[in-house]
UniProtKB/TrEMBL annotation:
Name of the molecule in the record: Inner membrane protein YgaP-like transmembrane domain-containing protein
Native organism: Ciceribacter selenitireducens ATCC BAA-1503
TM stretches of this protein: 7-25, 31-55
Alphabetical UniProt keywords: Membrane, Transmembrane, Transmembrane helix
Gene3D superfamilies assigned to the protein according to its UniProt record, in alphabetical order: 6.10.140.1340
Sections of the chain in a coiled coil: none
Domain of life: Bacteria
Domain Inner membrane protein YgaP-like transmembrane: 2-56
Length: 66
């Protein structure tokens, strides 16, 4: 799995988890979803992604985006 796909899969899982937490635990978990979206947006413009840095250190092969 490439670094790009790992980051996208991780972001998708985090969004789904945050939506489930919002629905079943407390409505304020919606801010977790907002945080994930803002992080994805800033990553698209700046190229800086903390998750990509972590996955790169874990040995995922580089992709096109990161």
């Amino acid at each position: 799995m490439s670094l790009d796909r790992a980051v996208l899969a991780f972001a998708g899982v985090m969004v789904l988890v945050s939506v489930l937490l919002t629905a079943f635990v407390h409505p304020y978990f919606v801010w977790f979803t907002v945080f994930i979206g803002v992080n994805m947006l800033q990553s698209a413009f700046t190229g800086f992604c903390p998750a990509a840095m972590i996955f790169k250190k874990l040995g995922f092969r580089p992709g096109c985006a990161f």
